[in-house]
Design goal:
The chain is mainly alpha-helical. The protein contains two helices and no strands.
């Protein structure tokens, strides 16, 4: 059998070890929390960089498409102007008369 002193000594020893384990667990919890905050900040920065790059790509694509559309409209306009230039003056005069007579008909 164990003596009362031995039992008390073992209880105190177990209490000291338990306190040591609690301290270690607290330190580990603080470390894990710090690491989680750091990782979250790194992920946030990475996502911000990715988002900025994606926005730049989308802006460049939009500008490219806009330029293509403007060029397309300019080309169509140039083709129409060229088509009008090649029309004979008789046809131009006839078209002008048709437009004018239509305007006269509306004003009456």
């Amino acid at each position: 059998m164990q003596t009362g002193e031995n039992i008390i000594s073992r209880i105190i020893d177990l209490d000291v070890r338990a306190e040591s384990i609690r301290v270690q667990a607290g330190e580990e919890a603080v470390r894990i929390q710090s690491e989680a905050v750091r990782e979250a900040e790194e992920q946030k920065q990475s996502l911000e960089i990715q988002t900025a790059e994606r926005v730049k790509l989308l802006a460049a694509e939009a500008a490219r498409k806009r330029t293509q559309e403007v060029d397309k409209v300019k080309k169509e306009y140039a083709n129409q102007v060229e088509g009008i230039r090649t029309i004979s003056s008789e046809k131009k005069d006839r078209a002008a008369l048709i437009v004018l007579s239509g305007m006269r008909g509306r004003s009456e």
